Amino acid sequence: MSRRPRSVRPSRSSGLRQRPFGEVRNPYRPMEILSVDQIEVIHEKSLMVLRDIGLKVDSAVARDLLAAAGADVDRSTGRVRFEPAMVEAMLTGIPAGFTIHARNPQKSVYVGGNSLTFATVCGPSFVSDLDRGRRAGTLEDVRNFVKLSASLNIFHHEGGAGCEPLELPPETRHLDMMLAQVTLCDKGWQPCWMNTGARARDCIEIAKIALQTDDAGLRARPGIIGGINTNSPLLLDDGQAEGLIEFARAGQPVHITPFTLAGAMSPITIGGSLVQQNAEALAGIVLGQCAARGAPVFYGHFTSNVDMRTGAPAFGTPEYAKSVIASGQMARRYGLPIRSSNTTASACVDLQATYESDMSIMACVQGHINVMMHAGGWLEGGLTCSFEKLILDAELLQAQAALLDPIDLSDAAIGMEAIAEVGPSGHFFGTDHTLERFETEFYDPLLSDWSNYENWRDGGSIDATHRANLIWKDILARYEKPPIDPAIEEELEAYVAKRKEAIGAEG
Description:
18 helices; globular; 7-stranded mixed sheet; alpha/beta
């Protein structure tokens, strides 16, 4: 029987215990909260929305593709309606999974089936830590966050460079962020900037340079995961649509994630929101197939509820967890991978952040979510990325990964000889069976020495958040840049400089 990955016990000075980098797979059956009949109700109601109401599609390029495939396009309003037969036909022939090929081949990961891919946070404008508090993100913060993403083995994917460097021009900052992602980290990565076709093309060109391949090679061996949002309710803007088209034509996987918040951008009930989410996701998937038949376009989930007293989004709630699990069922109904998120609405790293993230992570695991975006560092409903939260999330994810490790029932693992050796009323601390395994047999937390209260108190009474603060700074101090060919790095820097010059001239 195969053994589970063993945790690595580091030096005492770092206080960090990590599993080796490796794919995580869920051996358990996915949780199901919808019956087969209920799944079909959501599917049929979604097709009714697409046929009778449709979506407004701002992009003329996208409207032309949809019209050519048989959609009913109103050129005067941009409204696009989809016949159910067209949707059903377009849902066939889409890959059920794909491999993301990292710059370091040993860190390539498969997405699909029962695989779980953990990706760090992307999108926040702000960053926080215990030393400097909440503040606008900078390029230094981006670079530090990417270094941490590279160093924490539990994260399979650099999810989006952490935060936006707000001191840089918005027209070109995506180039600096991607340069950090591909040079400071050797894992697969996700760009956060598919809001125009040109920026999506920048992502593709940088991936080609980083992997030293061409269009055909990248199409055959994808290197990045993209994602777009619909502007719920029932709107697909031109930039998102054209970013999707670029990625589909380049053969790069892209998830279609509606921004459905119950009571604000979708019906106040979870059932109504799931119908609208499903309709919008299917419309985006169809567009991807119109751009390139057989492109790896897949299902995205983000449905949650809203605090109706304030209008603020709520995350990590029971409603959010139910929508995660139900969305996993819908994605499996279509034979597609699915993306969801680790979320919290808490404004600081506190108990609320922990229990909301724990509920989000557990729902993603139970629902067999293939790509967990924002798995590390998300805070304040996605407005802030937190360095301490990144470490605490890594702790939660390592625990979940350990839960999914198989139980070893080999003769060597059971240790009948040790049971006979100890016999009645003894202990197992000193047996060879224990001594051979004591450093690796059980889950090791990142943040705790499994100490008792007296030792914890004598050591300074430090809590988990403050320990996380020490750990991320220690990781940065020890960070070593992954090897990269200097010629490749020079080519990447030259591309970034050239594109900045061109964008400046356009502006």
